[in-house]
Amino acid sequence: MSVTKTYLITAGSIPLLERGLRMQLPETRDSGRPAGPGTGVSSVNRAGRSLNQSGSVVLTHLENAGAAGGLFKGEREKISLMAGGLVAWELLTLVREGKKKALSLRGISASLIAGGGLSNLADRIIRGTVTDYVRFPRLPGLAGKLVFNISDFCIIGGVLLSLLPEGRARKDISA
């Protein structure tokens, strides 16, 4: 498999994974769309299920009409344009990195950012909001109040990977 295909499959899998996980939320099982008004940043919180007894990970349901924890609420067009630009940039990076014969940290990073960004962008364009559903209430301060989705984790992971030095470790998959 070519390096480019590997990156594109990685990026393209993220929206599919996100959709599948979101379908497991009780409010979305029937139609794939969340219940509730979906306007603004409104925590429906019907699920509220804890994944463990300590409550350190909670499944909840939040429709985010803004970005990054509800910032820029009501600026859907601006957020969509910025996110679209970021996704396009990362896809161009995928193509550039895909010309190499080995996987690179930058290519993997771009795959994660593009896939997560594409998933959230598609939600925002199609439904007007992004569905977030994972919260870590035991984290201190604001971090314990934020609600995430898998795409957010991919974006965060991709950004963190992009900060690492490339080094010499590459995996040649051209054979």
Report what the structure shows.
This protein has 175 residues and is of the alpha+beta class. The chain has one domain. Helices cover 46% and strands 13% of the residues. The chain contains four helices and seven strands. The strands form two sheets. Strands 1, 2, 3, 5 and 6 form a five-stranded antiparallel sheet that branches. A two-stranded antiparallel ribbon has the order 4-7. Helix 1 packs antiparallel against helix 2 (76-98) and helix 2 (76-98) packs antiparallel against helix 3. The protein is globular. The chain starts with a helix and ends with a strand. The model is unreliable at 28-48 (pLDDT under 50).
Give a quick precis of the structure.
By secondary structure, this protein is an alpha+beta fold.
Summarize the SSE layout with pairings.
Layout: H1 3-22, E1 42-43, E2 49-50, E3 58-64, H2 76-98, E4 102-103, H3 105-127, E5 130-135, E6 147-148, H4 150-163, E7 171-172
Antiparallel strand pairs: 1-3, 2-3, 3-5, 4-7, 5-6
Subunit arrangement of the protein: single chain
Main structural class? alpha+beta
How much strand content do the residues show? 5-15%
Q: Nearest-angstrom radius of gyration? A: 17 Å
For the residues shown, what is the average pLDDT? 77
Q: Keyphrases for this structure?
A:
175 residues, alpha+beta, two-stranded antiparallel ribbon, 46% helix, globular
